[in-house]
């Protein structure tokens, strides 16, 4: 009988399981791998084209292979590849498909630094690009005969817009265009792009997979067709992640489902509490009934995570929003999210969208709700939000 995913999260990716030995795959650091003869060395070099095996440190060691196996299991892919950052995984995925004279179509909700890949890599290499609206209304008309890749993110960065991903994939695939999705929000657990029809799922393991704010890593998971097309590029471009980092992410992932359940539950409590506050114009959280595509969230997501964004009423200035942020005791001020702790930052939504105009809105504040006791978080938010009325 096939085990449930929650059980597989615990038991997959354990390397060569032994009757006697450590629970976790040991950290295997290596550059040189030694062979006992030229014949076995040649054999390994031949087999590494299709198998994950030890041949040279740049191609990973047993620790990386165990992590790749676990994430492949969760995402339902054919193979996975580790990268030094999430952004590197995104960049190499795009480079795998985009060629001079071609075109890449992005969801307007992509992680904002992806726009820098556009301006600093696609544009100088004569690859054009566009952004489509997250309600999908202009998706088909923005596809071109020369479109080589659709790159989406759902739920989207900062505002958590839900795309109808199966529909996007259907339309793209009808024209033979592959679809890659940034799945950092879902992180191998809450959302499954490959199951919804995408060809490649990219995750910043820096966030929930690590879960403890002390590792930088990206992971690309591809279906078989996509792997055959772009699977050799990461190695060709020298992409690798250290065995120590792979071990930390593997360790973090064992509690992924448990952590996300608490992040999601607490974030929903905070979201509903913030909805009641008169200072708040809108709370952006895909699990809320008033989210414009809550139906897609209910259909496609297993639950929510700790991310939520609020828009303050327009009478509050940036300086007031910043005083609110500074007054919070339990929310750290810093980039990234997905660790066990709560975080807060102002969100530049206008700069992160171009197919839709977000100017003229109130101040946006993005929270990551951590694993603290939610009543302490609410008390902290209450004293903080009260500073707006001083
Ligand atoms: C953080 C993030 C990334 C980039 O990950 P890094 O490891 O910081 O490069 C990519 N996509 C999304 C949605 C993210 O939130």
Automatic annotation (TrEMBL):
Single GO term (MF): cysteine-S-conjugate beta-lyase activity
Keyword line: Lyase, Pyridoxal phosphate
One BP annotation, GO: transsulfuration
Pfam families with a match to the protein in the record: Cys_Met_Meta_PP
Family note: Belongs to the trans-sulfuration enzymes family.
Catalytic activity field: an S-substituted L-cysteine + H2O = a thiol + pyruvate + NH4(+); L,L-cystathionine + H2O = L-homocysteine + pyruvate + NH4(+)
Name of the protein in question: Cystathionine beta-lyase
Cofactor(s) for this UniProt protein: pyridoxal 5'-phosphate
Lineage, uppermost ranks: Bacteria, Pseudomonadati, Pseudomonadota, Gammaproteobacteria, Enterobacterales
Protein's pathway: Amino-acid biosynthesis; L-methionine biosynthesis via de novo pathway; L-homocysteine from L-cystathionine: step 1/1
This protein's record includes keyword Lyase: yes
SUPFAM superfamilies noted in UniProt: PLP-dependent transferases (SSF53383)
Origin species: Budvicia aquatica
N6-(pyridoxal phosphate)lysine: modified positions: 207
